[in-house]
Amino acid sequence: MLVLFCVQLVIGGWLLLIATPRYKVFLKEQHGYLKIPFIAPLSLLLMDRLRLADHLSEPLSRVHQLMAGLHGSKTAVIRTKCFAANVLTVVIVVGVGSTLLSWVSESGAEMLLYGCCLIALLPFIFYKELAVRLQKKKRQMLLELPEMVNQIVLLVNAGETVQKALMRCVERRSNYHDSPLLAELAKAAQEIQMNVSFTKSMEDFNKRCGLQEVSLFTTTLLLNYKRGGDELVMSLKELSFSLWEKRKSLAKTLGEEASSKMVFPMVVIFMVVMVVVAAPAVLIMG
């Protein structure tokens, strides 16, 4: 094991010296999205030399879809590359670490076997984390969308144009970056201020959100915003009603999930209470 560990260190260190200057610019630009930036150049070099993007095109395309939903289609390719580099970086760390533990522990090759099992599971763990993040983002968007539609209805009724109403929805919240829906809407509002057409801005907003309910909202706006007046307000009110129903359904689902997660802790607490209550009686009988 000592020989294997030394070989890993020598080869890894040599490749790292070669890779660091080559990917210096990429590391600087994507520093916040790379885990263990010190080892990331080695992962990027291995990805390019082994042509992992070609051999793993199908799994990476699934990751790309998740990244498009999380960060938008413009940066999805870069984020997918960072994701693959992160997985490979953790695989390298686990592989070297398990070899080191196999050498210093008495278990020998057993620790190396555990490390290999963990390495096989790592891509699925990283992918699952991405899927959960995207699901949470979409759920949060669905919870916020009915409220935003109501605000637009009120502003349009008060005489604002649709463009101004969208901008006011963003301006009224100083911490809109914490809201995925308003963050995407802020990008659309900025595009409108830069004289991008309203239709193009809304279509890009729809693509970045990747949610069916947002698609219904943007379609309703694009079909009726030129007409304005009562037709737009009535269409948005009908959409708002259906969105509130979906929000209620989602809130009910989230409540059921929260209650199901509490079952195991409650069982553990019940067992602890039973032990505390029964222990004195058992000791007295003894």
From TrEMBL:
Q: So which domain of life are we looking at?
A: Bacteria
Q: Where is the Type II secretion system protein GspF domain?
A: 149-278
Q: Which Pfam families match?
A: T2SSF
- Protein's membrane topology: Multi-pass membrane protein
May I have one GO cellular component term?
plasma membrane
Q: Where are the transmembrane segments?
A: 83-105, 111-131, 262-285
Q: Report the subcellular localization.
A: Cell membrane
What keywords were assigned to this record? Answer: Cell membrane, Membrane, Transmembrane, Transmembrane helix
Give the chief site where it resides: membrane
InterPro entries noted in UniProt:
T2SS_GspF_dom
Q: What is the name of this protein?
A: Type II secretion system protein
